[in-house]
Amino acid sequence: MAMAVTTMEPTPRETVVKISAQDVSFFYGNHQALKDISVDVQANKVTAFIGPSGCGKSTFLRCLNRMNDLIDGTRMEGSITLDGHDIYAPDVDPVELRKEVGMVFQKPNPFPMSIYDNVTYGPKIHGIKDKSKLDHVVEDCLKKAALWDEVKDKLKQSALALSGGQQQRLCIARTIAVDPKIILMDEPCSALDPIATSKIEDLIDELKHEYTIVIVTHNMQQAQRASDFTAFFMLGNLVEFNNTADIFLFPQKKETEDYISGRFG
Ligand SMILES: Nc1ncnc2c1ncn2[C@@H]1O[C@H](COP(=O)(O)OP(=O)(O)OP(=O)(O)O)[C@@H](O)[C@H]1O
Ligand SMILES: [Mg+2]
């Protein structure tokens, strides 16, 4: 019988590719918004997409959970895999995919219902009816979203009565309530003040232990603080993709250097 091997040192977590995009091009009608984008998103890391307005960040983010399928007249080329499986394969149900790959938007968009009902909305659609189970989901997700202490005594109140920053954390709680593997965030802090922003950044740091996170941001400090990897886009091209420290300290391309130093964008 083999001896159990114990070690005092924590083994470093291997890097695992969660999402792999290869040569992705995307068209709105005749307009090509993305040109041959290849990016590997690592599991349990935060990957930031940065670049000037209109460069294709949101378009690429939406390719990762097939949200662009909902826009008429669009076409994608190339391949995107999640855990090695083609997410555009004919047998993939986009609704199921979006359960695995959740999304948080720029403007907090809680449903016009109670805090409790916002969090249980997804789980109920997916068939969970048991009250104690739902209660547990609500507490668990609000805790993970760092909102529980602020709302535990008013779960039946309207979500719309929360502050913008609280609403955004509620939207994160609602997203994680359906147990995704990946959370996509499109400028999640752009409507928030610095304190609410810093809470979301702390939260992102916590959530990456359990989820893989991709965040679009216009805020260079935020990309530096919150992400492990950064992809810089310009005019539909991926100019540079590297670990965040290298992108900001040793950009390889002049366009990257100009953008991160605020010379344009
Ligand atoms: N629904 C749409 N229909 C047609 N063209 C679109 C659509 N959405 C985006 N585009 C075009 O695709 C290009 C990329 O847009 P996208 O929204 O991905 O940029 P972005 O980098 O997210 O910009 P921003 O920083 O302003 O949010 C732009 O030229 C834009 O005009
Ligand atoms: Mg955008």
Structural overview:
The protein has 265 residues and is α/β, with parallel strands linked by helices. It has a domain at 17-110 and 181-260: Rossmann fold, CATH 3.40.50. It has helices spanning 57-63, 94-100, 115-125, 131-144, 148-151, 164-176, 194-207, 220-226, 244-249, 254-260; strands spanning 17-28, 31-42, 46-50, 74-82, 85-86, 101-104, 182-186, 212-216, 229-234, 237-243. Strand 9 (229-234) and strand 10 (237-243) form a beta hairpin. Helix 3 crosses helix 4 and helix 3 (115-125) runs parallel beside helix 6. The termini are far apart. Bound molecules: adenosine-5'-triphosphate and magnesium ion.
Walk me through the topology.
Blueprint: E1 17-28, E2 31-42, E3 46-50, H1 57-63, E4 74-82, E5 85-86, H2 94-100, E6 101-104, H3 115-125, H4 131-144, H5 148-151, H6 164-176, E7 182-186, H7 194-207, E8 212-216, H8 220-226, E9 229-234, E10 237-243, H9 244-249, H10 254-260
Parallel strand pairs: 3-8, 3-9, 6-7, 7-8
Antiparallel strand pairs: 1-2, 1-4, 4-5, 9-10
Helix pairs in contact: 3-4, 3-6, 4-6, 6-7
Bound molecules: adenosine-5'-triphosphate and magnesium ion.
